[in-house]
Structure formats: structure tokens, C-alpha cells
Write a structure and sequence with these properties.
The complex is a heterodimer of chains A (167) and B (564). Chain A has 167 residues and is of the alpha+beta class. Chain A is built from 4 helices and 9 strands, in the order E-H-E-E-H-E-E-H-E-E-H-E-E. Chain A has 2 domains: 75 residues, 2-Layer Sandwich (Alpha-Beta Plaits); 71 residues, ACT-like. Chain A, domain 2 (Alpha-Beta Plaits, 2-Layer Sandwich). Chain A is elongated. Chain B folds into 3 domains: 174 residues, Rossmann fold (3-Layer(aba) Sandwich), CATH 3.40.50.970; 161 residues, Rossmann fold (3-Layer(aba) Sandwich), CATH 3.40.50; 180 residues, Rossmann fold. The longest helix of chain B is centred in the first third of the chain and has 15 residues. Classes of the chains: A alpha+beta (167), B alpha/beta (564).
Chain lengths: 167, 564
């Protein structure tokens, strides 16, 4: 199972070491990790996507809550929060295939940010599903370089507590 | 008033009632040591930093009070790692203050620089690197609070040399404000969980209590006795829970797990309700989890949410301080008894007692029995790690909490001597006995010098079998008697070593001398080392093989089982 953790931490030196160290020490698997400032300068949000057994996923949240600088840990299921990831990818696109690649990029709402004689570099963002679909679509052309931010996430505010969106 | 960084730290420690330090000075901590002396802060100079950490550990376990451990940077600080890991595993509060190179030198591979902040993350409850003299007051207060509240644990403050001497305006404690919001408070009493537990007690036919370190740390012994007696439920104590329930009481079933009593393990296998009060279901207790308490409803009271459901699935989780929960239970419990079940476990106690053979050699269990007799169970008992530790846990019948000091989770050989010295500093009125193995003792015996210097009258009984005995036992049982590197045939003369340190030392080779030598040691005004040359091939029984279930316990050596 995969699980998104949205973790609010005090913006202290060393806090990322404590959080990352916990995952290493207890043998939990991190798929991605993204950290950045929030609306409050004293607080940083770290979003971690981890995978493991169901019991282990709860244990991760409990262990995180014990860390001194951790203020809040939310276990987010995909359909109760907006999740986004930014991808930069350089696609192999000789002139003969360039327009095809750009057309495909447009279909995903991706931006062209650089172009050479045989490559096109794209910027795209989306949820887990969209990013995977997009990367799969370009796989056939060949992806020569790629950088991903890892997932960031915010819960959907203002919905009733028992609200269950249709996935 | 204007104070320097070292003075502020000391002021804050004193204001919190901390009044003991163990440590060794060195380059990067000299300004702090200078202020320690000027302020008359009590300090014990040890011979190794690991010893200092174990002393603070032993001190905290018997007194409930926190001591500081002070070292220099680099090697002085890294020598603490084992001591911190040990305290972390057993939830013992202590505050390490390590010197660090000056802030402008950090990260340059300076002389005696080590990344103590990074090194100590996995072995402390929390840690700080002070970068500004104005942080010291807050950090010290937080360090003390973190170490002593909730589930206790060790903390570390890395203290750069330049900040130790930087001056700033200091406002004493009362008027200082915390720049951080208050962090999580104690959980509220879980009345719903308590209701469920009371219902489960009503329904149960074969209930058992297992009491862990949480009983000792929360001061819940009296409440536990009241609860168990009113409910008529027998009590098992884990290794770190020993002393939490009187060892001589009828309801006491001893220790569970790998080297637990037969009747404790029988009771775990047969019970239909297990009430875990502040124990963490360690693997040495549970054995194979799938065959642990197979037919029982499991209730687990713990101050640490992360322990609940960590290894054993819990039906009735109760997050809270064990003592608070027991008080609430005692208010509402209807006295009861489980006659049939009582008969069953009483029979087990009679039919499967702890025992050892008698063959004319000095049996280690006999020495422990004799120590128990001459102290009448009223001493403080400290151990190293290994066979001797298990025998001590099995054979000493503790009368009260905080009289048993042993390294549980980490299993730190060498813990014994420094921990015993720390315990004696904390409770000078008590007789402190260290029961140790020759392997364990040799690892930190340099602290005999500390015992001699400060005339700390700890009594040391080395159960010397010239082996790493527990390793030898496993090799005998599971490695077809291939004794790979577990033998010390050329052991030193420990009595002579003791004398060299200025400590009375006696070698005991004759079983008829055991009692006399113990009495001599007890009467001697000062530390004593008794080196008992015990039976070399004695094993610890019962035993649950590693990875097996508690139902696969072997009661005695295969030969003896075959005879009976």
C-alpha cells in the first residue's frame, strides 16, 4: 500500500534529518519526499509518499508524531486531498517527430521549456495518475533526462467530515 | 545580569533541581568545566565516558532523578553513544552535554570534531546543537522537559566552545517565556478503554497481568498490588518491570519469555485475558508473535501510542499513564476471584519451580540465592548482561520497585559496574550489589578506579565461568558445541586487579567459602570485588529458543528432561 503523509514541522535546522532518519532507522520505504515553507514562516510542510503493510503505515504516523519538532501528521488518502507533482522531462524528439511530441504535450497541458535539434524539454504537473500516464505516453520516444519534485499535498477544506469523494 | 553560556546552562540545571554530573573534561568543554568548579556543582570524574553515561543511567533508575553527563567533543562525545542507546532503549532520562568545536570551525574537520548532532539523532529522544548563546535557556529547559516527561529518555545538548564563553543578559527562569507553543500534553484518561477493560475482566476466566517498566516509571506499584489482589489476578513482571510487584507474593508468577519461569509462560499460553500494564511486548517476551497468548483478549496500557499495536495486535488499547489508569480501575473494580484458574497456576508454580542441580561446584544460582539471603531482598541489585543477568532476574525476589538495575532492551555488556556506582550515589543508604559476569565486568572494570577514588562501597560478585556464557550456551544448544571464540581461558586475576585499583579483592573457589566471602564483603567499609570461579557449563533454564513460540519452551537440559 502507498500512503501520503503531510507533516507539519517546526522550521528548525536538523528537522529533516530527524524525519528522514526515522524512516531509515525503522526500515520504512520512502517513495518521494518534498519539503518547503508554508504560509507560516516558522513551519515547514514535508510531504512523504511511503509504502508498506497497512499496520506499518499507521506505525509510521505514530512514530512521526513522537518527534519533538513534528507538530502534525496527516495520513492522506488520494481522494481526500489535492496532490500534485511537478515533472521536468527531456524527450528525444528528432525534427521528424517534434510536432507529434508537442501535440502530445499539449494534450497533457504540458509546457515546452526548451528545444534542441533532437530533444524537447517539457514541464508538466498533475496528480499521481496524470504524471504516470504522461510519462508512459512519452516512454516510446525515449526520456533522456527527468527530474520530479515528489508529491505535495493539501487536504480539501470545507467539506463535511463524512464526505467521500468518488475516486 | 550578564552571564556567559556555561553559567546560564548551570543556572538552568540548578533551577530544575538537577544536582549531579558524571563526566570527563577535555579541550572543547574546558570553559564549562571551569564554571562547574566555580559553582560547586557536584561532579564525579569517571575513567571513560561510557561509564559516565551508565552511572547517570543507574542513578536515574533508582532515584527517578536526572543527572547530567559531560564530555568533550569528538572521541569524548562519541564514547557516549552506547550509553545513550542503552538509556533510549530502556526509557531512562539523562542529559548529555558535549563540548563542540567553536561555531566558526564546525564542518572544517577541526581537531576533535565529530558531528554529535547527527550521531546522536537515533540514540536520543531529542537533541540540540546550540548556535546562539540566547538559545541556551530555552534549550536547557526543553531538554529537561523532554527527558523527564511522557515516556522518559536521554537527550543531548551539543555545546560549541565559543558559545560557552559568550556573554549575554540572563533573566532567571520564572520570567522567561517559551518561544514555542506547549507541546503535546498527557493524554486524557481513556474512560472508554477502562470501561472495556472492566467488562473484559468480568467476562474472563483465566486473566493474567503483565507489568513492565511503566509500573516502575509511573510509580504504580502500590496501585498494582491493590488491583491484582482485589481482582485475584496473577502478575508477571517483565525484565524491566521486576520490583513492580512483590516477588514473594502468592500472585507473583515471575518473568515471562525467553528465560522466564515455566509458570509465567504457561499462563501466557493459557490465559483468555492479558492485561499489559506498561510493557512493550519485546521480542524476548513474546517469542513468535503468532503463538503469543493465542486465545486471549489483549489489553495494553501504555504512555507511548507508538507501542500500541506495534508488534502485538491489541483488542483494548488504553493510551495513558499506567498509574492514572490503575487508580481509575481500582475505583471501579468489584473484588473477585478466579478459583479454578488460581488452582491451575498454583499447581504450575509447585510442579515447575526454578531449580538448579547441586554438584559440589559453585553454582552461579547459589551465589545469587545467598546474596538474596544476606540482603533479605532489601538491597539494590545491578547486573551486567548475559547468563548471570538472567539468573539474577529469576532468583532474586524483589521487595520494592527501583531496586533492580539492568540493561534490558540494548543488552549492554559492561553496564553493570558504572550503573552500580551511579545507583549507590543516588541511594547511599542502600546496599548495592553488582552481580556480573567475567565478560561483562571486563568491559568497564576501569571504573573500579572511580569506586576507589570516591570510596563508593559497591559490592561486586563476578560469576566467573571464563566464557561469554550466553554465547557458549547458544553454541552448545544451536551450533553443535562449536565454541567459536567464546572462551577466555587466560582470564586475569580479577581480585588482584581490584587490589591494584585500591579495591578489596577476593577470589572464591570453594563452594563452602561463598557465604563467608559474601558476609565479609557486606561488612567491609568500601568497595569489594568477589571473583567466584563458578561452574563453567551451567546453562540458563527454562529457555524458549530464538524465533520459537513460548509454547515451545524447554524446561531443562534435554538429559534431565529425559530422566524425569
Amino acid at each position: 500500500m502507498r500512503q501520503v503523509y503531510s507533516i507539519l514541522v517546526n522550521n528548525h535546522a536538523g528537522v529533516l534529518s530527524h524525519v528522514a532518519g526515522l524512516f531509515t532507522r525503522r526500515g520504512y520505504n520512502i517513495e518521494s519526499i518534498a519539503a518547503g515553507p508554508t504560509e507560516d514562516a516558522t513551519i515547514t510542510r514535508i510531504v512523504i509518499v511511503a509504502f508498506g503493510e497497512e499496520n506499518e503505515l499507521d506505525q509510521i504516523a505514530k512514530q512521526l508524531r513522537k518527534l519533538y519538532d513534528v507538530r502534525e501528521v496527516e495520513q492522506i488518502s488520494y481522494n481526500q486531498a489535492v496532490t500534485r507533482e511537478l515533472v521536468l522531462a527531456t524527450i528525444k524528439a528528432p525534427i521528424s517527430q517534434r510536432s507529434e511530441v508537442i501535440q502530445l504535450a499539449n494534450a497533457f497541458g504540458a509546457q515546452v521549456i526548451n528545444m534542441t535539434d533532437d530533444t524537447v524539454t517539457l514541464e508538466a504537473s498533475g496528480n499521481d495518475h496524470k504524471v504516470r500516464t504522461l510519462l508512459k505516453a512519452f516512454e516510446g520516444y525515449g526520456i533522456s533526462q527527468m527530474a520530479r519534485t515528489g508529491m505535495i499535498s493539501l487536504p480539501y477544506d470545507g467539506m463535511p467530515e463524512d464526505w467521500e469523494p468518488i475516486a | 545580569m550578564e552571564l556567559n553560556g556555561s553559567q546560564i546552562l548551570i543556572e538552568e540545571l540548578k533551577a530544575a533541581g538537577i544536582e549531579m554530573a558524571f563526566g570527563i573534561p577535555g579541550g572543547a568543554i574546558m570553559p564549562f568545566y571551569d564554571e562547574l568548579m566555580k559553582s560547586d556543582f557536584p561532579h564525579i570524574l569517571t575513567r571513560h565516558e561510557q561509564g559516565a553515561a551508565h552511572m547517570a543511567d543507574g542513578y536515574a533508575r533508582v532515584s527517578g532523578k536526572v543527572a547530567i553527563v559531560v564530555t568533550t567533543s569528538g572521541p569524548g562525545a562519541t564514547n557516549l553513544i552506547t550509553g545513550l542507546a542503552n538509556a533510549q532503549m530502556d526509557s531512562v532520562p539523562l542529559i548529555a552535554i558535549t563540548g563542540q568545536v567553536a561555531t566558526n570551525m564546525i564542518g572544517t574537520d577541526a581537531f576533535q570534531e565529530a558531528d554529535m548532532y547527527g550521531c546522536s539523532i537515533p540514540v536520543t529522544k531529542f537533541n540540540w546543537l546550540i548556535k546562539d548563546v540566547n538559545e541556551i535557556q530555552h534549550v536547557t529547559r526543553e531538554a529537561i522537559r523532554v527527558a523527564t516527561t511522557g515516556r522518559p529518555g536521554p537527550v543531548l545538548i551539543d555545546f560549541p566552545k565559543d558559545i560557552q564563553i559568550t556573554k549575554t543578559e540572563y533573566t532567571p527562569r520564572e520570567s522567561a517565556e517559551s518561544p514555542l507553543p506547549a507541546i503535546r500534553e498527557y493524554p486524557e484518561l481513556d474512560t472508554e478503554g477502562i470501561d472495556k477493560l472492566l467488562e473484559a475482566i468480568e467476562r474472563a476466566k483465566r486473566p493474567v497481568i503483565i507489568g513492565g517498566a511503566g509500573i516502575i516509571k509511573s510509580g504504580a506499584s502500590t496501585e498494582l498490588v491493590k488491583f491484582a489482589k482485589a481482582a485475584g489476578i496473577p502478575v508477571i513482571n517483565t525484565l524491566l518491570g521486576l520490583g513492580g510487584f512483590p516477588g514473594t507474593d502468592d500472585l507473583f508468577l515471575g518473568m515471562p519469555g525467553m528465560h522466564g519461569t515455566a509458570y509465567a509462560n504457561f499462563a501466557l499460553c493459557e490465559c483468555d485475558l492479558l492485561i499489559n500494564l506498561g510493557a512493550r511486548f519485546d521480542d524476548r517476551v513474546t517469542g513468535k508473535v503468532s503463538s503469543f497468548c493465542p486465545n486471549a483478549t489483549i489489553a495494553h496500557v501504555d504512555i507511548d501510542d507508538a507501542e500500541i499495536d506495534k508488534r502485538v495486535h491489541t483488542h483494548i488499547p488504553i493510551l495513558g499513564n499506567v498509574r492514572d489508569v490503575l487508580i481509575a480501575l481500582n475505583e471501579r473494580l468489584t473484588p473477585r476471584d478466579y478459583d479454578e484458574w488460581r488452582q491451575t497456576w498454583t499447581d504450575w508454580k509447585e510442579n515447575y519451580p526454578l531449580q538448579y542441580d547441586w554438584d559440589g561446584s559453585i553454582k552461579p544460582q547459589y551465589v545469587i540465592d545467598q546474596i538474596q539471603e544476606i540482603t533479605e531482598g532489601n538491597g539494590i541489585y545491578v547486573t551486567g548482561v548475559g547468563q548471570h543477568q538472567m539468573w539474577a532476574a529469576q532468583f532474586i525476589r524483589f521487595n520494592e520497585p527501583k531496586t533492580w538495575v539492568t540493561s534490558g532492551g540494548l543488552g549492554t555488556m559492561g553496564f553493570g559496574l558504572p550503573a552500580a556506582i551511579g545507583a549507590k550515589f543516588a541511594r547511599p543508604e542502600k546496599d548495592v550489589w553488582l552481580i556480573d559476569g567475567d565478560g561483562s565486568f571486563a568491559m568497564t572494570l576501569v571504573e573500579l578506579a572511580t569506586a576507589a577514588t570516591y570510596n563508593v562501597p559497591v559490592k561486586v560478585a563476578i560469576l566467573n565461568n571464563a566464557y561469554l556464557g550466553m554465547v557458549r550456551q547458544w553454541q552448545e544448544l544451536f551450533f553443535e558445541k562449536r565454541y567459536s571464540h567464546s572462551h577466555y581461558p587466560e582470564n586475569p586475576d580479577f581480585a588482584a586487579i581490584a587490589e591494584g585499583y585500591g579495591v578489596k579483592g577476593i577470589n572464591v573457589t570453594d563452594v563452602n567459602e561463598v557465604r563467608n566471602s559474601l558476609e565479609t564483603a557486606a561488612e567491609h567499609d568500601g568497595p569489594v570485588v568477589l571473583n567466584f570461579l563458578v561452574n563453567k557449563e551451567e546453562n540458563v533454564w527454562p529457555m524458549v529458543p530464538a524465533g520459537a513460540g513460548n509454547d515451545e519452551m524447554q524446561l531443562a537440559p534435554p538429559s534431565r528432561e529425559a530422566k524425569s
